[in-house]
Structures are given as C-alpha cells and as structure tokens.
Amino acid sequence: xxxxxxxxxxxxxxxxxxxxxxxxxxxxxxxxxxxxxxxxxxxxxxxxxxxxxxxxxxxxxxxxxxxxxxxxxxxxxxxxxxxxxxxxxxxxxxxxxxxxxxxxxxxxxxxxxxxxxxxxxxxxxxxxxxxxxxxxxxxxxxxxxxxxxxxxxxxxxxxxxxxxxxxxxxxxxxxxxxxxxxxxxxxxxxxxxxxxxxxxxxxxxxxxxxxxxxxxxxxxxxxxxxxxxxxxxxxxxxxxxxxxxxxxxxxxxxxxxxxxxxxxxxxxxxxxxxxxxxxxxxxxxxxxxxxxxxxxxxxxxxxxxxxxxxxxxxxxxxxxxxxxxxxxxxxxxxxxxxxxxxxxxxxxxxxxxxxxxxxxxxxxxxxxxxxxxxxxxxxxxxxxxxxxxxxxxxxxxxxxxxxxxxxxxxxxxxxxxxxxxxxxxxxxx
Length: 429
Ligand code: PGA
Ligand code: ZN
Hints:
Layout: E1 4-13, E2 19-27, E3 32-36, H1 64-78, H2 86-97, H3 107-124, H4 129-134, E4 143-150, E5 163-167, H5 174-194, H6 214-227, E6 237-241, E7 248-249, E8 252-255, E9 260-263, H7 264-277, E10 280-284, H8 292-302, E11 307-310, H9 318-327, E12 332-335, H10 337-340, H11 343-355, E13 359-363, H12 373-380, E14 384-390, H13 394-407
Parallel strand pairs: 4-14, 6-10, 10-11, 11-12, 12-13, 13-14
Antiparallel strand pairs: 1-2, 2-3, 4-5, 5-6, 7-8, 8-9
Helix pairs in contact: 1-2, 1-3, 2-3, 5-6, 7-8, 9-11, 12-13
C-alpha cells in the first residue's frame, strides 16, 4: 500500500516570481506528498545546480526540462518503489542523474522529488513530518536566526554583508523568540523611517539596507535591539551572514560600500574587530569558499567566542564537513536540502556535522515558496537552529508560523535550547 503509483510535476512560481519545480507523489493507499524546490541567489560553487531552460523566456529561468525529467526518467525509475525507502529512492535519483552536482536532471527536479517522497511517507504513516523524522529519537524546537536587514545579492549588492540577523538568546520558547524578533524588526523599521531611509524590503523581507557603511548597519541593529527594550548580547544577539564568496576571490576581498580591498588576513582582522565591538554570536561564511586557509585561521582566532557557520564553504556535503572538521574550519554547518539535492544526502551532512560536534542550522533559500518542510526537518532532525529569512513576507512567515503551531500543538517536541549556539572549544570539552 506504500508503493509509489504516480508522480506529477508542475511549474509553480517562487517568492521572486521565478519558475520552480513542484512534484506530487501518490501511493497505492492514497497517501500523497508534495515537494517544492527553493532557489538560492548566492550559491556555492560546489552545490547541486538547478536545471534551467536558458533562452529568453523568463530570463532563461524556466524549468520545462526539469519537469520533463521528473515525468519521464525519474517517474519510470521510482514508480513501484516503496515510499518509505527514502535512501533507496534517493540512491536511484543520484545514479540516474550520474553527475556530482546533479546538473543532468537538475538539483531542482531531484530535491522536489525527494521531498515529495518524504512527505508521502509521513502521510502514509499518518504522522506529522517532524515526528516521522524523529522516530524514537528526541526532537527539539530550533533556535531561530532571523534577518532584520537584507544585503548582498538579496539587495542588488547595495551592501557587502548579506544578512544582518538576530538570535533571541534570552527566549525560553520558540514563540517567545518570535515575539522578541517582532519587536526588534518593528523598531529597526521605525529607526529607518525616522532617518528618511525606509525603502521597502530586500529579497528575504529584511529592511532595505540604505546604510553608509557596514558598521552603520551594525550600529542601527544594536539601536533597534535597545529600542525594542532588550539588552544586546544577553537578550538578543547579532548573527551575520557575510556571504564572503560573493565579493572575495583568490584571497582578495573587495568591499564596495567601504571602497577598500583587503587580503584574507586584513578582512579577518576587520571581522574580528566587529566581534570585539558588537554583540555578535554567530558569523556565517566569514571568508570565501576558496579561502580554506583563511577559514581555518579565522576559526582558530574566533571559534571560542562565536559560532562560525559554513554555508557556501560546506554546501551541505558530508565529505566537505568531515574534511573541515579534520582541519578545524568552522564549528557549525548550514543545512540546505537543495544544496545537497536529496533528503538522504542532506541528512548525511547533518549527521556528519553532529558526529564532529559541530552545530547545525537548517536553512531556507532566498527564493522560497509557501512550503514549510524545512521547519519539520529542523525539528525532527534535532538540528538545534533554523534560518528562514526575515520577519515579513508570507514565504518566510509561513515557516515561523508552522514552528509556532508545532510548539503549541499536541505532544510538542522538546523545548528550545540556546545552548545550541556553538562556541569552541567549550563545546568539545
Ligand atoms: P541564497 O542565500 O539562498 O540566496 O543562496 C542564503 C544564504 O547565503 O544563506
Ligand atoms: Zn549564507
């Protein structure tokens, strides 16, 4: 009864108005599951790539080729398989595609199919997805990282740093973290309005970053936390996603806003200065994906003070996570299912991180939909942290609201725990 009987693929539209892939899986018992591919704008070199049609239609972003792959090759290969055999199905998808970055059938086609299978298996078990994933293991509410100002590739490169976020380190529950963030987000908007700098929002819903310097944004964020009635650092900490691969290459970092070019050590010095001066608790991709030596040095210098997150640097890849752990680069891994391309490979990256004592943050992409699957992954996989963008726009709020529903529902998972913020070496001991 849990045999897959059909796959339906259709084109839907993401939060940037771009085409994306949606797949429905049906089983013999009538259980159904739906998977949707998100899309990144600041992508890592080594992540799974989306299959796009090219040409002029929709800026070359159409996904008809990816849909054809799902309806043809992929459907032929997995119809008849047991929907509960996630690993076997993902292995078939990986072998069928045959490329390391899923470029032939498309990471978008594969992750939508893989997630649809997962949802259908949970539906067949008549269990919420998070609980299906947890099985007998503990599940806990994740600590959210929430964007207040959006920059980098999500704001036309108006600023260098991509995400200015907050983590409500004083929150005792997910719901309380939402309340605290709502006040900080509102206060930040009011501060921008007071300066005549309120200019709408960036791609993930954070306020548009009309700042004179990166420090100006950090000062404003601290002021917003205080204006909301919280103590920066103890109630609410700052998390940054530098997304340094966007402006750093071959050891040179070009900061457009500050009009300077720095080498790896110089840029690291600048970030270490920010860590000393601002209540920063987490920093993602501080150095570029091609700057391994820089990342190791930075982790050595700051890994006992702040969480250092690898996104472009580790691309949800278990092998890269193991290598980074052996060399001492980063102490936390960003987990994005569509970087890996299948649910099984995503889980492998997460488990590799957990085995290494690294923290894990399940993350959405800048191009999203109403899909809330990642909230369930974060809870069911006991990831500890969750990043889905800002506190505005429904593709973001749908996910935060899903977290509230799960936390306040019957038989909720374990409580949110701020100790999930990773600092080395304390965590290792
Ligand atoms: P992306 O960015 O989804 O645009 O790649 C998100 C991130 O860098 O964390
Ligand atoms: Zn990132």
